[in-house]
Design goal:
Layout lengths: L2 H33 L4 H25 L1 E5 L3 E6 L4 E6 L3 E10 L6 E9 L9 E2 L2 H6 L1 H13 L6 E5 L6 H11 L4 E2 L1 H12 L2 H8 L1
Parallel strand pairs: 4-8
Antiparallel strand pairs: 1-2, 2-3, 4-5, 5-7, 6-7
């Protein structure tokens, strides 16, 4: 699978979905007004449908919106419906791990990126590592315990990136290139290798 083509297809599908939902959202009340169907049943039915459309749009935006940039020092991300901001000091990243999971909104497998850092850097999304987090992510816990033994004086924070769908692949590649002091787990390396083997940028460079 060509990842770049798949990302473009994802963006195209996203735009078509948004346009179609907006069209339906506007057409239905207009049709009701033109038909002069002001029966309470039709009005309630319309309200329910409009709410479902709105909810579908919110979920789609929340799942797929991911933008990021790297300025040579920090990696800046915007995610989800709220455009939540996350700034990561790349030199402070100590661990990057990838986990597969099944989204409750989609049947196909997805993956999340788990990042451990020694700096919070005024980020609400960088959370102090706690027992519940370590219980939920056993492999990260294993790596965390090793780092804590080597550097007991360090305080570790984590963040989890789930949004973005296929856009997480180029993000992961950017993290790999910019976070030079981080340890990348085997699962993460496999994802990066898969991206580079199926990305137009790397395939074209190989041909040259």
């Amino acid at each position: 699978m060509n990842i770049d083509k798949a990302i473009r297809k994802q963006k195209k599908s996203y735009k078509i979905f948004m346009l179609s939902m907006c069209f339906i959202f506007c057409v239905m009340p207009t049709a009701l007004i033109l038909a002069r169907k002001f029966n309470i049943f039709y009005i309630i039915y319309l309200i329910v449908l409009e709410m479902l459309i709105f909810l579908a749009v919110v979920i789609r935006i929340n799942n797929e919106f991911l933008k990021f940039s790297y300025d040579g020092y920090k990696l800046k991300l915007k995610m989800g419906i709220r455009r939540a901001k996350l700034s990561i000091i790349c030199d402070k990243i100590v661990l990057v791990h990838v986990e597969n999971y099944i989204s409750k909104y989609r049947d196909n497998p997805n993956f999340r990126i788990i990042i451990l850092s020694t700096s919070k850097f005024r980020n609400d999304r960088m959370i102090l590592v706690h027992k519940e987090f370590l219980k939920r992510h056993s492999y990260v816990a294993h790596q965390y315990n090793k780092m804590k033994i080597l550097h007991p004086e360090n305080t570790f924070y984590y963040t989890i990136i789930k949004r973005g769908e296929l856009n997480k692949y180029p993000l992961l590649d950017t993290i790999y290139k910019s976070c030079v002091y981080a340890h990348f787990t085997e699962e993460t390396i496999e994802r990066i290798k898969y991206y580079r083997e199926n990305s137009e940028n790397y395939i074209d460079n190989k041909k040259k």
